[in-house]
Specification:
Chain A: Belongs to the peptidase M14 family. Chain A: One of its GO terms (biological process) is proteolysis. The complex is a heterodimer. Chain A has eleven helices and eight strands. By secondary structure, chain A is of the alpha/beta class. Chain A has an eight-stranded mixed sheet with strand order 1-2-4-3-5-8-6-7, sandwiched between helices. The N and C termini of chain A lie far apart (about 50 Å). In chain B, the strands form two sheets. In chain B, strands 1-2-3-4-5 form a five-stranded antiparallel sheet. A five-stranded antiparallel sheet of chain B has the order 6-7-8-9-10. In chain B, strand 9 and strand 10 form a beta hairpin. The radius of gyration of chain B is 19 Å and the shape is globular. The chains are: A alpha/beta, B alpha+beta.
C-alpha cells in the first residue's frame, strides 16, 4: 500500500516538474518565436510581455502602472536579479512609444528585453549589473496612439495620444512629450489642439504622462538613469529642451553620451549626434527627459533612432535588427557607465566605458555570430 | 538670436541649411536612378546680407543613395528676408555628381512607362512597414525628386523637410514624349512635427529630367476620419 502511494507521489511530482519545465520551455520558445525583426501590433506586444515574464520568472516581473485615455493598460517589464548581499537596488528606466508613429522605438524595447534575457546567464558583467539594478522597460507608453497607427494606412503617421478634443475643437490627442511637468508650455509647443506638438491643457494633464511621473516619482531617489526612446534623426539628446537652462552635470552628460555614440557607431557605422535639443534639433519643453533631470535623476537621455530622412518614421523592417543592435550598444554603454560610477568606487567613466563596453560588445558579437535565433 | 559667423556643423542652423541644398540637388539632378541625401556637414558659416536675407556657406558631404557613392560639395544658401514668401536661393558645386552613368537604366524605365499597356499607379510608398516593392522603387524615387521642388520652395531657417510617404501616384496619358504623373505626397516637417499633404503634377524624361507643372498644398486632414456628428 505504502509503496503504491509513494510511487504515485513520485509520479505526480515527476509530471508536475515536466509540466512546469514544459511551460517554461514554451515560454522561452514563444519568446524565441516572437520575431524581433518585425513590427508587432499592441495585442502581440501584450502577449509577448506575458510570455517573457512567464518564461523567465527569476529575472522578469511586470507591473501595470497606469491606464491610457481609452482605458488600456500601461505595462512595464522589470528586469532584475536578487542582490546577493541584500543591498538596495538602484533603478534604470527605459520607455518606448511615447510617440505613436515611431514604431522602431517599441521594437527596440522588445529587442532590449530579449537581449538581456538571452545573455544575462553567460555575461558576467550583465549579471552583476542586474544584481545591483532593476531595469524598468515600458515597450509602449502611448498605447492608444500606437493602436491608432495600426488602424489603416491613413493613420500610420499619427503622433499624439488619443484624448478627446477639448471644447470648441474637433482635434484629438496631446503630444505626450510636451505634457510632462518640465517648464511646461514655454517653448517648442502649440496651444492649438489640432497641432502635432499640442502640449495639453496643463502639465501632466494626460493620463499616460501622469502615469510615468507618478510611478517614477516614487522611485526617484533610487533612479540613476532615464532613457526615453524615439525616432528619428540619429541623435542622443541631453537635457534641457529650453535654450536657456543647462543641466548641472552637462559636461558629464556629454561625455557619457559621446561614449554611447561611439559604441553605436562601432556596430554598423551609423553616426549619432550628441547634444541638447536646442543645439541639434529644436527647443522644446515638457519632455519626459527634461522632467526626469529636473526631479533629480542624474542621467537622462532621449534616443532618436534611425534614420536621417530617407524613410523617417517608416523605417523598413529589414533595418529593425541593425537599428536595435546599435541602440542596444548605446543604451548598455550608458547603463554600464552609470552603474560603474555608482557601484565601483574610484572608477573613472572613460576607463569604465571602454572596458565594460568592450566586454559587452564582445559577448554580443559572439552571440550574434553564433546565430542566436530570435 | 541667430548664430552668425562660424557655425557648429552639428547644430541645427547648419543642418537645416544643408538639407535645403539636398532638396536643391534633387530638384536639379535627381532622377529615378539618382537620389541625393545629405550625409554630413563639415563646416558652415552664416552672415546677414543687408536688404537680402541671411546667407549660409557650407561644406557638406552628399550621398548618392542608389549607387551608394559619396561626394563633397560646397554650397551657398540664401534665405531671403522681406515681403512675401520667397524660396531660398541655392548655389552648389558637386563635380562628381553627374558622372555616374545611369542612362541605360533610365532609358529602359522610360521605355517601360511609354509602352506599357496600362498606365501605372501605386499607393503607400513605402507602406506602414517601410516596404516598397522593387518594381515601385522608381516611382518612389520620382516622387522624392518632384517633392524636392516643393520642399525647396517651402524651406526656411525654421524648417526641416523630408518626404515621408507617397500616398498615391498615377501615370497620366500624354501626347508628347514626356511621361506624366499625378501624385499625392506626405511631407514631414521636423520642427513642427507636422505631416503636410501636397498634390503634384510632374513630367519626366531622361533628357529633360523631372519638371513639376503644378503643386498644391492640401488642407490639413486632422484624423482623416469624420468628426463627431454635432447636428
Amino acid at each position: 500500500m505504502e509503496k503504491k502511494t509513494l510511487t504515485l507521489w513520485v509520479l505526480s511530482l515527476f509530471l508536475l516538474v515536466l509540466k512546469t519545465s514544459n511551460s517554461l520551455e514554451e515560454g522561452l520558445e514563444s519568446t524565441r518565436m516572437h520575431d524581433y525583426a518585425k513590427y508587432h501590433p499592441m495585442e502581440e506586444i501584450y502577449t509577448w510581455m506575458e510570455e517573457v515574464e512567464r518564461g523567465n520568472p527569476e529575472l522578469v516581473s511586470s507591473a501595470v502602472y497606469g491606464r491610457t485615455y481609452e482605458g488600456s493598460n500601461i505595462t512595464l517589464l522589470k528586469l532584475g536579479l536578487e542582490n546577493p548581499e541584500g543591498k538596495e537596488k538602484k533603478v534604470i528606466w527605459v520607455d518606448c512609444g511615447i510617440h505613436a508613429r515611431e514604431w522602431i522605438a517599441p521594437a527596440f524595447c522588445q529587442w532590449f528585453v530579449k537581449e538581456i534575457v538571452h545573455s544575462y546567464k553567460t555575461n558576467k558583467k550583465l549579471e552583476q549589473m542586474l544584481q545591483n539594478l532593476d531595469v524598468y522597460v515600458t515597450p509602449v507608453v502611448n498605447v492608444d496612439g500606437y493602436i491608432f497607427t495600426w488602424a489603416n494606412e491613413s493613420t500610420r503617421l499619427w503622433r499624439k495620444s488619443r484624448s478627446d478634443p477639448p471644447p470648441n475643437s474637433s482635434c484629438y490627442g496631446v503630444d505626450l512629450n510636451r505634457n510632462f511637468n518640465a517648464n511646461w508650455g514655454t517653448v517648442g509647443v502649440s496651444f492649438d489642439s489640432c497641432q502635432n506638438n499640442y502640449c495639453g491643457k496643463a502639465a501632466g494633464s494626460e493620463p499616460e504622462a501622469k502615469a510615468v511621473m507618478d510611478f517614477v516619482g516614487k522611485m526617484v531617489n533610487q533612479t540613476l538613469c532615464f532613457l526615453t526612446i524615439h525616432s528619428a534623426g540619429q541623435l542622443i539628446l541631453l537635457p534641457y529642451g529650453h535654450p536657456q537652462i543647462t543641466a548641472p552635470n552637462y559636461d558629464e552628460l556629454v561625455a557619457v553620451g559621446e561614449a554611447a555614440a561611439a559604441e553605436m557607431k562601432n556596430v554598423h557605422g551609423m553616426g549619432y549626434t550628441v547634444g541638447t535639443s536646442p543645439q541639434i534639433l529644436y527647443a522644446n519643453s515638457g519632455s519626459s527627459r527634461d522632467w526626469a533631470r529636473l526631479i533629480g535623476i542624474p542621467f537622462s537621455y532621449t534616443f532618436e533612432l534611425r534614420d536621417k530622412g530617407e524613410f523617417s518614421h517608416l523605417l523598413p523592417e529589414e533595418q529593425i535588427q541593425p537599428a536595435c543592435e546599435e541602440a542596444y550598444a548605446g543604451a548598455l554603454s550608458i547603463i554600464a557607465n552609470v552603474h560603474d560610477k555608482t557601484f565601483n568606487s574610484g572608477t573613472r567613466p572613460n576607463a569604465a566605458v571602454s572596458g565594460v563596453a568592450m566586454g559587452i560588445l564582445t559577448i554580443m558579437v559572439v552571440s550574434f555570430t553564433a546565430g542566436v535565433k530570435v | 538670436m541667430m548664430a552668425t559667423g562660424e557655425l557648429n556643423p552639428n547644430h541645427y542652423p547648419a543642418q537645416r541649411a544643408a538639407k535645403v541644398v539636398q532638396h536643391y540637388l534633387n530638384t536639379r539632378y535627381g532622377s529615378p536612378y539618382r537620389l541625393l541625401g545629405l550625409q554630413r556637414v563639415h563646416s558652415g558659416n552664416a552672415e546677414d546680407v543687408e536688404d537680402s536675407g541671411r546667407k549660409y556657406q557650407l561644406e557638406i558631404s552628399v550621398q548618392e543613395m542608389i549607387g551608394n557613392t559619396t561626394e563633397k560639395c560646397s554650397a551657398e544658401v540664401l534665405f531671403p528676408r522681406g515681403e512675401g514668401q520667397r524660396s531660398p536661393q541655392v548655389q552648389a558645386s558637386c563635380e562628381q555628381l553627374l558622372k555616374v552613368n545611369n542612362t541605360a537604366q533610365e532609358e529602359a524605365l522610360y521605355k517601360l512607362f511609354k509602352t506599357n499597356q496600362s498606365l501605372l499607379s501605386a499607393q503607400n510608398l513605402p507602406d506602414s512597414y517601410g516596404h516598397i516593392e522593387p518594381d515601385m522603387k522608381p516611382l518612389w524615387h520620382l516622387s522624392i525628386v518632384a517633392s524636392s521642388a516643393v520642399m525647396l520652395n517651402e524651406s526656411t531657417e525654421n524648417t526641416l523637410y523630408n518626404m515621408a510617404q507617397v500616398a498615391n501616384i498615377t501615370q497620366l496619358a500624354t501626347e508628347n514624349d514626356q511621361v506624366k504623373f499625378d501624385c499625392h505626397v506626405l511631407l514631414h516637417e521636423m520642427v513642427s512635427q507636422e505631416i503636410i499633404h501636397w498634390k503634384l503634377l510632374f513630367t519626366w524624361s531622361p533628357p529633360e529630367g523631372v519638371k513639376v507643372l503644378q503643386m498644391e498644398q492640401l488642407p490639413h486632414c486632422h484624423d482623416c476620419e469624420k468628426p463627431p456628428n454635432t447636428n
